[in-house]
Amino acid sequence: MNSYGLARALTFAFAVLVTVCGFILLISGGLVTSKGVGMTVPDWPNSYGYNMFTFPISRWVGGIFYEHVHRLIASGVGLLTVILAVLLWFGEPRKWVRVLGYVAVVAVIVQGILGGLRVTLIKDEIGIFHGMFAQAYISLLVVIAVALSRAFATGGARWRWHAPGLLRWAIVLTVLIYLQLAIGATMRHEHAGLAIRDFPLAYGQLWPRISPADLAEINTQRIASGEVPTTLGFIHLQMVHRLLAVGLLAGIVAYAWKAGRAAMGVRLASRWWVALILVQVALGGWTVLSNKAADITTAHVAVGALALFLGVTQCFLLAAFSPRAAALKREAQLTPVSAR
């Protein structure tokens, strides 16, 4: 494999494995929240007094199954992250990639602690940070995996990522996606049900104009049907979520149009980004119409995460192969070793 080497290729494959496992962990956590079973195992790090790894399979029933399996997957991902960092320590020549591996280890430890605090302190708000920190941690794994790929490590010619003027667009859109996911996580972890139960309208209007009397009537109906009451704050938060989805779709379509004249890699990524956002909007509507069915809601979370990861990947590659980055690399290569 020329200068790339078999060892680095295997490290790349392992990084991809860790990233995929992290994504599976994210889906597992989404199922736990969607099914409302986050507190079915009330202690941590033990499970009903047992060591987590010796908890009898016969007791993996109902919601306990989803919560306990989530913990086991999390433990496995944590171990894989440590192994990845060790592989980078011994075999990766680029210091910044090794540092990313060490940061990933710290991140997965913090993530595990947040998950434990969510249980022991019984705080829904911690669940929001737990979910969003998971997105950031897996985004870091994505960057590490991309950086370890042969095309990137040997100069990036195959990436064809030269696209002047698109980096700022990509950064802004990716930050907005992360904000959108945070709003979604807030609505999910507050366990307040659907504040608005119709789509694409909201209480039959483009923007719901709800008086205190209207809200009291809505909550009377919700209580009668076994749902928790809602508030104007939750209703407006869901409307912001919908409006931001429309804005993101428009922004990413415009980004893809602008990328139409860019290099091949940018064009392909931008089109996939549009496709993911279209699927995400459809799943968002389906989530409402299905009254937050667990499988649909979890799919909505998963596709949103994929859109974030694709955005992070584009930001990373556009920055790495920008003219400025190329100039700095050439300058570093021309600088005598004694002067560095």
Structural class: mainly alpha
Number of helices: 11
Order of helices and strands: HHHHHHHHHHH
Q: Would you identify the regions where 5 or more consecutive residues have pLDDT less than 50?
A: 330-340
- Taken from the alpha-carbon principal axes, the silhouette is flat
SS strand fraction: under 5%
Q: Over the alpha carbons, how many angstroms does the gyration radius reach?
A: 23 Å
Main β-sheet description: none
Q: How many strand units?
A: 0
Helix content: over 70%
Count of folded domains: 2
Q: Mean pLDDT, rounded to whole units?
A: 89
- What is the terminal separation in angstroms? 30 Å
Written account of the structure:
α1 runs antiparallel to α10. The protein starts with 5 loop residues before the first helix and ends in a 6-residue tail after the last helix. It is mainly alpha-helical and 340 residues long. The protein has 2 domains: 158 residues; 181 residues. It contains 11 helices and no strands. The longest helix has 29 residues.
Topology diagram in text:
Layout: H1 6-34, H2 63-91, H3 95-120, H4 124-148, H5 150-153, H6 167-189, H7 212-224, H8 232-258, H9 264-289, H10 294-320, H11 323-334
